[in-house]
Write a structure and sequence with these properties.
Heat Shock Protein 90, globular
Protein backbone atom coordinates (compact mmCIF):
# COMPACT_ATOMS: atom_id res chain seq x y z
CA UNK A 1 0.00 0.00 0.00
CA UNK A 2 1.24 3.47 -0.85
CA UNK A 3 1.50 6.18 1.76
CA UNK A 4 -0.04 9.51 0.72
CA UNK A 5 1.84 12.72 1.41
CA UNK A 6 -0.76 15.01 -0.14
CA UNK A 7 -2.58 17.64 1.82
CA UNK A 8 -6.37 17.70 1.64
CA UNK A 9 -6.33 21.19 0.18
CA UNK A 10 -4.45 22.07 -2.98
CA UNK A 11 -1.06 23.65 -2.20
CA UNK A 12 -1.75 26.04 -5.06
CA UNK A 13 -4.81 27.37 -3.25
CA UNK A 14 -3.02 27.64 0.10
CA UNK A 15 -0.37 30.14 -0.89
CA UNK A 16 -0.44 32.83 -3.49
CA UNK A 17 2.04 31.86 -6.17
CA UNK A 18 4.88 34.23 -6.91
CA UNK A 19 4.62 36.20 -3.68
CA UNK A 20 7.99 37.89 -3.27
CA UNK A 21 9.46 35.97 -6.20
CA UNK A 22 11.74 38.66 -7.61
CA UNK A 23 12.71 36.62 -10.69
CA UNK A 24 9.11 36.04 -11.74
CA UNK A 25 6.94 38.91 -10.52
CA UNK A 26 8.15 41.42 -13.16
CA UNK A 27 6.40 39.22 -15.73
CA UNK A 28 3.06 39.25 -13.91
CA UNK A 29 1.10 42.33 -14.81
CA UNK A 30 -2.41 43.38 -13.77
CA UNK A 31 -3.69 41.72 -16.95
CA UNK A 32 -2.45 38.28 -15.98
CA UNK A 33 -4.79 35.44 -16.85
CA UNK A 34 -4.83 32.43 -14.54
CA UNK A 35 -6.22 29.22 -15.92
CA UNK A 36 -8.19 26.95 -13.64
CA UNK A 37 -5.61 24.71 -11.92
CA UNK A 38 -5.43 21.06 -12.86
CA UNK A 39 -5.02 18.46 -10.12
CA UNK A 40 -4.22 14.91 -11.21
CA UNK A 41 -3.09 11.68 -9.61
CA UNK A 42 0.67 11.21 -9.60
CA UNK A 43 0.41 8.34 -12.06
CA UNK A 44 1.71 7.85 -15.59
CA UNK A 45 -1.87 7.79 -16.89
CA UNK A 46 -2.14 11.48 -15.90
CA UNK A 47 0.52 12.61 -18.37
CA UNK A 48 -2.06 13.01 -21.14
CA UNK A 49 -4.17 15.38 -19.02
CA UNK A 50 -1.08 17.39 -18.09
CA UNK A 51 -0.06 17.61 -21.77
CA UNK A 52 -3.56 18.79 -22.73
CA UNK A 53 -3.42 21.43 -19.98
CA UNK A 54 -0.08 22.72 -21.28
CA UNK A 55 -1.28 22.72 -24.89
CA UNK A 56 -4.36 24.72 -23.90
CA UNK A 57 -2.15 27.21 -22.03
CA UNK A 58 0.22 27.60 -25.00
CA UNK A 59 -2.75 28.27 -27.27
CA UNK A 60 -4.17 30.91 -24.90
CA UNK A 61 -0.71 32.50 -24.70
CA UNK A 62 -0.38 32.42 -28.51
CA UNK A 63 3.02 30.75 -28.36
CA UNK A 64 4.52 29.70 -31.66
CA UNK A 65 4.50 25.98 -32.47
CA UNK A 66 8.16 25.40 -31.63
CA UNK A 67 7.98 27.10 -28.21
CA UNK A 68 4.72 25.28 -27.42
CA UNK A 69 6.22 21.91 -28.39
CA UNK A 70 9.38 22.45 -26.34
CA UNK A 71 7.39 23.57 -23.30
CA UNK A 72 5.12 20.53 -23.52
CA UNK A 73 8.14 18.22 -23.71
CA UNK A 74 9.82 19.97 -20.77
CA UNK A 75 6.73 19.72 -18.57
CA UNK A 76 6.22 16.08 -19.62
CA UNK A 77 9.80 15.20 -18.63
CA UNK A 78 9.56 16.79 -15.19
CA UNK A 79 6.07 15.36 -14.58
CA UNK A 80 7.30 11.89 -15.56
CA UNK A 81 10.18 12.22 -13.08
CA UNK A 82 7.78 13.35 -10.34
CA UNK A 83 5.62 10.29 -10.95
CA UNK A 84 8.35 7.68 -11.35
CA UNK A 85 10.97 8.94 -8.88
CA UNK A 86 9.08 11.22 -6.52
CA UNK A 87 6.15 8.90 -5.95
CA UNK A 88 6.36 5.38 -7.42
CA UNK A 89 9.99 4.45 -6.64
CA UNK A 90 9.62 5.98 -3.16
CA UNK A 91 6.51 3.89 -2.45
CA UNK A 92 4.36 7.03 -2.20
CA UNK A 93 1.08 8.10 -3.73
CA UNK A 94 0.22 11.70 -4.39
CA UNK A 95 -1.05 14.32 -6.76
CA UNK A 96 0.45 16.76 -9.21
CA UNK A 97 -0.88 20.30 -9.11
CA UNK A 98 -0.62 22.26 -12.37
CA UNK A 99 -1.18 25.97 -12.80
CA UNK A 100 -0.75 28.40 -15.70
CA UNK A 101 -0.31 32.18 -15.63
CA UNK A 102 -0.47 34.08 -18.91
CA UNK A 103 0.10 37.72 -19.82
CA UNK A 104 1.60 39.75 -22.63
CA UNK A 105 5.14 38.95 -21.46
CA UNK A 106 5.18 35.26 -20.62
CA UNK A 107 3.49 31.94 -20.05
CA UNK A 108 4.34 30.44 -16.69
CA UNK A 109 3.55 26.80 -15.92
CA UNK A 110 3.89 25.55 -12.35
CA UNK A 111 4.00 21.89 -11.31
CA UNK A 112 3.80 21.07 -7.61
CA UNK A 113 4.01 17.72 -5.87
CA UNK A 114 4.52 16.26 -2.42
CA UNK A 115 6.89 13.53 -3.52
CA UNK A 116 10.51 13.01 -2.57
CA UNK A 117 12.61 16.19 -2.60
CA UNK A 118 14.18 16.66 -6.01
CA UNK A 119 15.71 19.82 -7.41
CA UNK A 120 16.34 19.35 -11.14
CA UNK A 121 18.75 22.31 -11.11
CA UNK A 122 21.15 20.39 -8.86
CA UNK A 123 21.63 17.68 -11.45
CA UNK A 124 24.98 17.96 -13.17
CA UNK A 125 25.07 18.77 -16.85
CA UNK A 126 25.64 15.57 -18.81
CA UNK A 127 29.33 15.50 -19.68
CA UNK A 128 29.05 12.77 -22.28
CA UNK A 129 27.05 14.70 -24.88
CA UNK A 130 29.99 14.69 -27.28
CA UNK A 131 30.50 10.91 -26.98
CA UNK A 132 28.90 8.26 -29.20
CA UNK A 133 25.59 6.90 -27.86
CA UNK A 134 27.10 3.59 -26.75
CA UNK A 135 29.61 5.45 -24.51
CA UNK A 136 27.12 7.80 -22.84
CA UNK A 137 25.95 7.41 -19.27
CA UNK A 138 22.25 6.51 -19.04
CA UNK A 139 20.01 9.06 -17.33
CA UNK A 140 19.96 12.79 -16.77
CA UNK A 141 19.68 13.91 -20.37
CA UNK A 142 15.89 14.40 -20.24
CA UNK A 143 16.04 16.78 -17.29
CA UNK A 144 18.91 18.69 -18.89
CA UNK A 145 16.98 19.05 -22.15
CA UNK A 146 13.80 20.05 -20.29
CA UNK A 147 15.57 22.88 -18.51
CA UNK A 148 17.25 24.00 -21.73
CA UNK A 149 13.92 23.97 -23.62
CA UNK A 150 12.36 26.90 -21.73
CA UNK A 151 13.48 30.50 -21.29
CA UNK A 152 13.69 30.14 -17.51
CA UNK A 153 13.28 27.25 -15.10
CA UNK A 154 13.03 27.62 -11.33
CA UNK A 155 12.72 25.12 -8.51
CA UNK A 156 11.51 25.85 -4.99
CA UNK A 157 10.94 23.70 -1.95
CA UNK A 158 7.98 24.99 0.06
CA UNK A 159 7.42 22.97 3.21
CA UNK A 160 6.64 19.46 2.00
CA UNK A 161 6.17 20.52 -1.62
CA UNK A 162 8.37 20.62 -4.70
CA UNK A 163 7.55 23.48 -7.07
CA UNK A 164 8.87 23.45 -10.64
CA UNK A 165 8.33 26.68 -12.58
CA UNK A 166 8.66 26.88 -16.37
CA UNK A 167 8.75 30.33 -17.99
CA UNK A 168 8.45 30.94 -21.73
CA UNK A 169 8.51 34.53 -22.92
CA UNK A 170 6.11 35.71 -25.58
CA UNK A 171 7.58 36.68 -28.93
CA UNK A 172 6.64 40.33 -28.35
CA UNK A 173 8.37 40.26 -24.97
CA UNK A 174 11.52 38.75 -26.47
CA UNK A 175 11.61 41.41 -29.19
CA UNK A 176 11.20 44.07 -26.51
CA UNK A 177 14.01 42.56 -24.41
CA UNK A 178 16.25 42.39 -27.50
CA UNK A 179 15.50 46.02 -28.35
CA UNK A 180 16.12 47.19 -24.77
CA UNK A 181 19.45 45.34 -24.58
CA UNK A 182 20.65 46.67 -27.92
CA UNK A 183 19.49 50.23 -27.29
CA UNK A 184 21.64 50.41 -24.16
CA UNK A 185 24.81 49.54 -26.03
Amino acid sequence: MHESRDERESPIAKQSLFESRAEITPFLRPHTLSMKPLIVAGELESLTEIAQFVIKATQKASLDKKAAYLLRLAVDEIATNIITHGYKQAGLAGKIYCQAKINENALIIILEDTGVIYNPLQQEKPNSLHKPLEQRVVGGLGVYLAIQSVDKFRYERLGERNRNIFIVYSQASQKSLFYDQNSRA
